[in-house]
Give the backbone structure.
Amino acid sequence: MRNKIIFFGAFFLFSTFFFSLPIVHQALAQAQKQSAVDTLVYPIAELGQCQSKGACKTYCDKPENSEACLNFAEKNKLMSAEETAKARAFAKVGKKGPGGCTDGNSCEAYCDDVFHIEECVAFAEKTGMMSKSELEEAKKVNQALKNGAQLPGNCRNKKQCDSYCESPDHMEECIAFGQKTGMMSAEDQRDAEKVLQAIRKGVKPPPCRGKQQCDAYCQEPDHFDSCVSFAEAAGFMTPQDAEMARKTGGKGPGGCRGKECEGFCDNPNNQQICVEFAVEHGLLSQEQMQQMEQGKQQVQEALRSAPPEVLQCIKNAVGSDKVEKLQQGILSPDRAMSEPMKKCFEQQVPRRESEQGQFQSERQGDQSSNFTGPGGCRNEQECKDFCIKNPTACSQFRPETPLMQVPHMELEQRTKMNGPIQNGEMRGEFREEMMQQQIQPSQGEFQQMYNQEQEGAGERIQQIMPPADMIQQIPQEIRGSEPGSYKAKSTSIGAILKLLLSNVLLVR
């Protein structure tokens, strides 16, 4: 509900316009309160070489000087284009308004009286000094008065009506007048009814008016509870929302309020603070909490199993301190981390594949001098000989560099040629199933599995990011739904902050 509903002074809109009628000397008087007036240098050639503000006012009071004065005021930003347009319209009718008023003060005094409403509305319509929507509202009030409606408390002007309707004790009467005149939309009427229900319950609304006043009033710690109580009684907040508001004091992470929280939690440096705030104040469901914990554990596992070069790449990308916190499980992953982590895993796979090709060539006789296999073997032939005699030891061997294993068919042929092993470790012929159990995959097979595992690690890094997505939800929970919507989630403090830190508590 807009300010006009509280003031119920839409029928005085014309007086407001007359008060700001841009008659030039009035514009200069208003300009005295602005910094622009400080830049004026006297005498002013465009205004008849006037030597002072008083002299310029006298010059601009003359009808024949109106255009020159208006041009000067607009050029020097003493008046807006809209104001000068209205001033020119007023000048066209001879600088005389309803009741013969000739300036802002006299027109305000005349049109501020409700008995002159019809004459003043007609004049505003004729001169175009009111917008279409403002004119329609003023006409509605005029028609309601014609039909016998009484202004709240029988007030006669804007000041009286403002004073009367500011009191919570008179709000029901003032809202009823707004409904009767048809100035309130269906949504405004529903909200007004909620306010009335709260008042009937004996809960007084905060003594503030409009968004700015209610923002300032309800942000004060001493007023916060009363604002929450009224919002709850009026049905703008659920009991759960009200309880959450009392717990948080109406503030979000880092002390942010309203839309400030969106910008605060969008900053990657603040995301951990936002997550901790959401956890502390119960803004996340049990399922979301479990997802967060699972995400932490999966990131820990991915980092624990990452090759040294991948881990170093990640540290370079996101920072060693963050990697350490991720490994310890005290930091939740976010999207800003996931992409560079994924790239680090992916970049190492081609390198490993290249190493695979190099290693396979070593099987043809170009062995790496650093290779050490089971039993200390240093080349393919030594390892073949050792594994034929010690199959169990070979099956249990887990090298840092994948082992160059003995191909299955070659071992079978070697066994047939040499016959049963005579060293006492195994006697009798090798059975096919025994060989399948004991002989490890070939180097190529092993490397392929390794590469697939590393490729999968990069994908998993991004797949375990849903908890980080919750970070983006947190500011939404805090700032609530979009303006005009009161359907906040039961576990959200968003509606609370939107309600208390915007213009919904009383009437807008």
Observations:
- Residues 364-403+406-439 form one domain.
